[in-house]
Amino acid sequence: MSGFDIKESVLGSLDEQRELFIWRFKDISREQVTTEYKHFKKHDLKNCGNLDEHEALMLLEHRDMAHTATELRVLLSEIDKDKDRRVNFLEWCCFFFKKDWLELNNFVDEESRANAIAEAMAAGERAKLAEAAIAEAKRLQEEKAKKKAAELEEEAKLTGVKGAAAFFKRAGESATGESTLSTKE
Question: What's the pLDDT score for residue 174?
Answer without folding.
Answer: 75
